[in-house]
Every structure is written in C-alpha cells, then in structure tokens.
Design goal:
- By secondary structure, this protein is α+β, with helices and mostly antiparallel strands.
- The protein has one domain (3-136): Hotdog Thioesterase (Thiol Ester Dehydrase, Chain A).
- The protein has three helices and seven strands; from the N terminus they run E-H-H-E-E-E-E-E-E-H.
- The chain has helices at residues 23-40, 45-52, 132-136, and strands spanning 3-9, 59-66, 75-85, 89-98, 103-113, 115-116, 126-127.
- The strands form two sheets. A five-stranded antiparallel β-sheet has the order 1-3-4-5-2, with helices on one face. The chain has a two-stranded antiparallel ribbon with strand order 6-7.
- A hairpin with a 4-residue loop joins strand 4 (89-98) and strand 5.
- The protein is globular, with a radius of gyration of 16 Å.
- The model has no long low-confidence stretch (mean pLDDT 95).
Length: 141
C-alpha cells in the first residue's frame, strides 16, 4: 500500500494566541498531503483533470482526533495513505506524528469523491467511477 511521508515545520502563522496550531491549519496540511500522496503515485492534478475528464476530488467528509498539540517551531511528520476505496469515493488516512518517539498527535480521515461536470455544466457535479488504473497505482486495494 502506497504511503507518503511528509515533514512539516510549524510556523508562527500556523498558531493561535495560545501558541498552538489553530486547528483549521491541520486540514490545510492534510489537503496538501493528499496532493503529495497522489503525486507520489504519479497522478498530478492537472494531468488527472485532462486524462480522466474530472473536475476534481473534493472532500465530502472529514473526521479528526486531536491528541497532542503542536507549537511554533515543531517539526511534525504526516503519513498519508488511501485506507479505503469505493466505487466513486475513497478515504485518506493521515497520521500526524511528533516528538523523538514520533507519537501520534492527530489522526484524520478524509473522504473524497471523484467528480465531473455533467454535460459540461460547470455549476454542477456528479460522481464518476474511479478508474481501476488509478486505484492500482496505490496498491493493495
């Protein structure tokens, strides 16, 4: 199963007045980590839009457990993998770890869907089946 591992330095602008990461920033990190995971599989967004005629892979559900806070100057590691494939949706699991022992600080699951614009109508979206060749690039589905 394909996994992407990315190190992120927590910057001053990521933190709230209490000096810990403001929680929506984590979701931005995870979105970037999903992009990096797809790129590791050889799937670049611009190419996917053209090759598969899709409008994107938007998030439709996100769940996270926050266990250990992160602060300015921390280096954290995010491991991302597709944990479940459906017909037109998939779940990406992100594990954000920190510290010398790499303790899990956050676990996040984001559900995304493979969507296109029906009949070229840019105002509407409809799900499409994820091609098997895409799933195969991640292994173990």
């Amino acid at each position: 199963m394909l996994t992407n591992r990315q190190t992120i330095r927590i910057e001053w602008g990521d933190c709230d007045p209490a000096g810990i990461v403001y929680f929506p920033r984590y979701f931005e990190f995870f979105d970037a980590c999903t992009r990096a995971l797809f790129e590791r599989a050889g799937l670049f967004k611009r190419d996917m839009l053209k090759t598969y005629g899709i409008a994107g892979i938007p998030v439709v559900d996100m769940k996270a457990r926050f266990m250990i806070p992160s602060r300015f100057g921390d280096d954290v590691v995010v491991e991302s993998t597709v944990s479940k494939w459906g017909k037109s949706s998939f779940v990406v699991r992100h594990q954000l770890m920190k510290g010398d022992g790499m303790a899990m600080a956050i676990e996040c699951f984001e559900t995304r869907v493979w969507v296109a614009h029906p009949n070229g109508d840019a105002e509407k979206f409809e799900t499409r089946a994820i091609p098997e060749e895409v799933k195969n690039k991640f292994g173990g589905h």
